[in-house]
Amino acid sequence: MLFYNKFLILSFYITIVVVLAIIILSLAFVTSSSVPDSEKFSTYECGFDPYEDTRNNFDVKFYLVAVLFLIFDLETCFFFPFSCTISFLNSDILFSVFDFIFELIVGFIYAWKMGGLDWE
Predict the structure, then answer these.
(1) Is there a domain that residue 18 lies in?
(2) Domain extent at residue 90
(3) What pLDDT does residue 25 have?
(4) How large is the C-alpha radius of gyration of the chain?
(5) Integer Cα distance of 17 and 80 in angstroms
(6) What is the pLDDT of residue 27?
(7) Is residue 120 part of a domain?
(8) Residue 15 falls inside a structural domain
(9) Do 66 and 109 fall into the same domain?
(10) Which residues lie across from 103 on neighbouring strands?
(11) Is 108 found in the same domain as 67?
(12) Residue-level pLDDT at 117
């Protein structure tokens, strides 16, 4: 009987969430104004008119640099909690932090040696 009560409460909350989401989405769809404009659908290139067609070939180096930036930026976000709690860490966690730093350095050296950071 206890399981049935918990299931009933859970289904009640799920029903309320679904109904509320439908109401909010329908109100947003009804009240929004859609004014199609040619300027809205044009390519934005730093405020200038586009020089060429947007479907031209694009150098993969831009994507590689962006992915490497995201990876190294995300890894620096992992360093912040370690640096804030360094006095509370035991030796096992400290070893895992040094292992993380070692793997970061090895990944950086690998990307450097494979030419991922060269811009040619």
Answers:
(1) yes
(2) 60-113
(3) 95
(4) 26
(5) 35
(6) 95
(7) no
(8) yes
(9) yes
(10) none
(11) yes
(12) 73
Compute the distance between CA of residue 28 and CA of residue 23 in angstroms, rounded to an integer: 9
Position 45 scores a pLDDT of: 56
* Residues of the chain under the 50 pLDDT cut: none
Specify the pLDDT at position 52: 64
Whole-angstrom CA distances from 59 to 53, 55, 56, 68 are: 15, 12, 10, 15
> Per the structure block, which two tokens stand in for 106?
């090895």
Pick from 112, 113, 98, 99: nearest CA to 68: 112
Q: What is the pTM of this model?
A: 0.44
The count of structural domains within the chain is 2
CA distances from 120 to 58, 59, 60, 61, 116 (A): 14, 11, 12, 9, 10
- The per-residue DSSP string of the chain comes to -HHHHHHHHHHHHHHHHHHHHHHHHHHHHHH------TTTTSPPBTTBPPSS-TTS---HHHHHHHHHHHHHHHHHHHHHHHHHTGGG--HHHHHHHHHHHHHHHHHHHHHHHTTTT---
Bridge partners of 48, per DSSP, are: 45
